[in-house]
Amino acid sequence: MRILIDYILIGVIFMFLIEYTLNSPTAKKYSKIYPNLKIKFGFWERFLGITLWPICLGIFLYNFFKQYFK
Fold it and tell me: Among 9-13, 18-22, 33-37, which is the least confidently predicted range?
């Protein structure tokens, strides 16, 4: 039971950080260059982000390091 609570808590924190980053002034500064940054999360996006956060984190890290070492 404790592991499930930790898993969900990490997912909530992960989604909070994603939404905070997308709504930050830095992201808004680049919204003219990258118009897809203006993403609004609904219930299902948050739900899937919380339940599937390890997969989302893996995809992010893969793309980050691919661009970083390009």
Answer: 33-37
Distance CA 10, CA 7 (A): 5
pTM reported for the whole predicted model:
0.72
The answer to whether the beta carbons of residues 37 and 27 sit under 8 Å apart is yes
- Tell me which residue has tokens 């299902």: 44
Q: Is the pLDDT of residue 43 over 80?
A: yes
Residue 51: phi, psi to the nearest 5?
Answer: -80, -30
CA distances from 69 to 50, 54, 59 (A): 29, 22, 16
Name the residue among 70, 9, 60, 63 with its Cα closest to residue 1: 9
